[in-house]
Amino acid sequence: MGVHNVRVAVYNHFSSHFKVVPIARPSVEGLHFRQLSYGEAGNLTKPFSLDEVKQAVWDCDSFKTLGPDGISFDFLKNFGRLLRMILCNSRWNSIEMVSCLKE
Asked: Which candidate, 93, 96, 53, 49, places its Cα nearest to that of 77?
């Protein structure tokens, strides 16, 4: 068996892996999807209210973490008011900070 024969055998073997095989795939033609109104679409980009965020956090198990940083929902439940004050850039003094930690 010469080099040419090996080359042809290798080519035939690997070319069969990359051939386009016609497959009958489902399509979305003819399907009618419901569409959002402009008002409903605008609600998708509306910021969350503090009540919505608080409800979402309180509905979760306290021992679950949000991500790889290890901050648990229990931490957010205990220090949520303090974090909200820091993140919302509200003016607060040390007395308010201590009262947040006691709640």
From this structure: 53
| pLDDT tens figures, 29-46 | 889 999 999 989 988 888
CA-CA-CA-CA dihedral for 20, 26, 31, 36, to nearest 10: -80
DSSP code, position 32: -
In 3D space, the residue among 48, 44, 47 whose CA is nearest the CA of residue 56 turns out to be 48
Tell me if the pTM is above 0.90: no
Contact assessment for residue 78 and residue 58, using Cβ atoms and an 8 Å cutoff? no
Region at 73 (left for phi over 0; alpha for psi -120 to 50; beta for the rest): alpha
The residues spanned by each domain of the chain are 3-102
Read off the tokens for 49: 């209210």
Quick: pLDDT tens for 38-82.
989 988 888 878 788 778 777 877 777 767 777 777 877 777 777
Please give the backbone phi and psi of residue 58, each rounded to the nearest 5 degrees, phi first: -70, -25
